[in-house]
Structure prediction request, 140 residues.
Amino acid sequence: MNLQTRNKRTIDVNNASMSDLVFLLLIFFMLTSTLISPNAIKLLLPKSKSERVMAPKRAVNVYIDDKFEYYIEGKPVDEKGLKDGIIKALAGQTDASVVLRTDASVPIQFVVNVIDIVNNINKANNTTHKVVLATRPDKP
Prediction:
């Protein structure tokens, strides 16, 4: 006697909805990761009414926060290490720019210190590095 059931039960998992879910999560994380600000240093930039100028491609970012602490590309440096850090960041370049991002409450002497360092590097190495002061737009 050979008994067989006509309706066999098969266990199949439909993976179509799972792959859709994975792609949606991938898109979600790709979009949200680009929205994260790369600047971890909180600054209240000074206001300016001049037109917006895009930062140059070859630029070194120098930050001065409201506690008068210097950062080069987000890494903290002391006042003595500032010159060495800028020299190291500008090494091998002849016309790069230093983008200076300072808090609005920083005294002008701290800004002048960075400008003097870049001018001394230009004089010593016969280069044409520039200092660009980053500002935020003044809303009317």
The CA atoms of residues 38 and 74 lie 9 Å apart.
